[in-house]
Hints:
Blueprint: H1 8-16, E1 28-39, E2 42-50, E3 62-63, E4 66-68, H2 76-88, H3 92-95, E5 96-101, E6 105-106, E7 116-125, E8 137-144, H4 145-149, E9 155-161, E10 164-173, E11 176-179, H5 180-193
Parallel strand pairs: 1-7
Antiparallel strand pairs: 1-2, 1-4, 2-3, 2-8, 5-7, 6-7, 9-10, 10-11
Amino acid sequence: xxxxxxxxxxxxxxxxxxxxxxxxxxxxxxxxxxxxxxxxxxxxxxxxxxxxxxxxxxxxxxxxxxxxxxxxxxxxxxxxxxxxxxxxxxxxxxxxxxxxxxxxxxxxxxxxxxxxxxxxxxxxxxxxxxxxxxxxxxxxxxxxxxxxxxxxxxxxxxxxxxxxxxxxxxxxxxxxxxxxxxxxxxxxxxxxxxx
Length: 195
């Protein structure tokens, strides 16, 4: 962003320009909360490290709080807010304001598993609130948004997929690997914010 600090208003404009539309039938759905706040280092975004769990594809990964959309959820925003409350004890209905949605991302499809569409819902904290760690979360970390806007921070992560090494874009923040869907969402938002 050329040394100009990103503001909540710019984030809101980018989120308002985001997706809407209908969910296709028969597709598994999930929603995540991309939560921003004004912190000591300027604009910050919240990420969690998922707890280590055998059989969980995202075990130990850095991610935005969120999960599957339940039948009782009114929409993706409601699902993201509910999951955030369950995972880190933060009530986005009380302490946050919904800014909009980013573009949908899709999970990779292992053999025999239907793809899942993931809707990133963007929120801004309007008041500080204590955070907790639910059973699915190992750590909560606030990362300066400027870290992600610095193109020199982008790296390559190589991981075997079906026995073949595949290269993925990633970030490494203080020893934490940020890649996959979370990387895609961050990159998508960075792309919208670039002039």
